């Protein structure tokens, strides 16, 4: 999932460009945000994707038909030469390209799919509706949002009934550290409502047996950045044996280790499909 950054969802004067765009003329564009991609899948509008980051495609989007799509470049390294060639009707970006809006706007109006941490779900909804407008599917987007809202509300109600406390952990290049205050952690705790094991975490607190015995989480959610970007993944079995098994919950039980889908949680999020899958993964970890 992308971080819940405090950036504007629609940037520069491009909001006007987007709102004035004729959907019939801009029905196909470059989509560099996987939350936007999975939203188009749910809306049955993948024909609106002219290009996307092929090499970074998350596993949960593995069934998407990319035969008529081009490689839009890396998530941080867009193929602007391609954009100049295909002349897309729009470009949808993730936070990773937030600093290149002015450059990318030379090729097409830009929709920044970044969510706002201060008003998370409202900003997610707005982004999805704006994307729907671009492809002449605003009504479908609003309908799909209502369905998603119902599903998320039911999951949140189930989570609220659980007394289990959790810790969100990030793995990167052999290092493991607490990430409950990250965007992914905020999704788990602030949005989904999972209770925190540590209410006053230090930034990038190392995860070891001593710390786990101190905060005593019932659940340890793992986001594996290394695996998501194609590097050596965390050996969960070894980590569990050498670290987690040497700590217990407040009730003296084993800590439940939940290895979240790395490509979903690190590379995507904030879409109609990704949010539902993430919410279900969070709930499943509490059972």
UniProtKB/TrEMBL annotation:
Signal peptide (residue range): 1-21
UniProt key word Nucleotide-binding: no
Keyword check for Membrane: no
InterPro entries: ABC_transptr_periplasmic_BD, Bact_iron-sidero_bind
Pfam family, any one: Peripla_BP_2
Main location: other
One Gene Ontology term from the biological process aspect of the record: iron coordination entity transport
Alphabetized UniProt keyword annotations: Coiled coil, Ion transport, Iron, Iron transport, Signal, Transport
Subcellular location: Cell envelope
GO cellular component, one term: outer membrane-bounded periplasmic space
Coiled-coil spans in chain: 131-165
Recorded superkingdom: Bacteria
Fe/B12 periplasmic-binding domain sequence ranges: 28-287
Membership in a protein family: Belongs to the bacterial solute-binding protein 8 family.
Protein name as it appears in the record: ABC transporter substrate-binding protein
Species this protein is from: Candidatus Ignatzschineria merdigallinarum
Lineage: Bacteria, Pseudomonadati, Pseudomonadota, Gammaproteobacteria, Cardiobacteriales
């Amino acid at each position: 999932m992308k971080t819940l950054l405090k950036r504007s969802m629609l940037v520069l004067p491009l909001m006007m460009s987007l709102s004035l765009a004729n959907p019939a003329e801009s029905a196909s564009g470059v989509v560099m945000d996987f939350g936007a991609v999975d939203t188009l899948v749910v809306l049955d509008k993948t024909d609106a994707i002219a290009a996307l980051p092929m090499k970074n495609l998350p596993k949960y989007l593995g069934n998407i038909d990319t035969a008529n799509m081009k490689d839009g470049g890396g998530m941080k390294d867009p193929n602007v030469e391609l954009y100049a060639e295909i002349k897309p009707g729009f470009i949808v970006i993730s936070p990773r390209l937030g600093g290149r809006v002015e450059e990318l706007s030379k090729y097409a109006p830009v929709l920044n799919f970044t969510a706002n941490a201060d008003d998370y779900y409202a900003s997610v909804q707005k982004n999805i509706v704006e994307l729907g407008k671009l492809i002449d599917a605003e009504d479908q987007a609003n309908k799909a949002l209502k369905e998603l809202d119902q599903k998320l509300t039911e999951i949140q109600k189930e989570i609220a009934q659980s007394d289990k406390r959790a810790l969100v952990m990030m793995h990167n290049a052999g290092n493991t550290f607490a990430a409950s205050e990250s965007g992914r952690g905020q999704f788990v705790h602030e949005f989904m409502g999972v209770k925190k094991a540590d209410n006053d975490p230090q930034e990038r607190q190392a995860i070891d047996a001593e710390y786990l015995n101190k905060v005593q989480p019932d659940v340890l959610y793992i986001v594996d950045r290394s695996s998501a970007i194609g590097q050596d993944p965390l050996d969960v079995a070894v980590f569990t044996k050498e670290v987690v098994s040497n700590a217990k919950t407040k009730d003296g039980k084993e800590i439940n280790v939940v290895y979240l889908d790395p490509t979903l949680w690190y590379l995507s999020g904030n879409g109609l499909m990704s949010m539902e899958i993430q919410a279900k993964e969070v709930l499943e970890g509490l059972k």
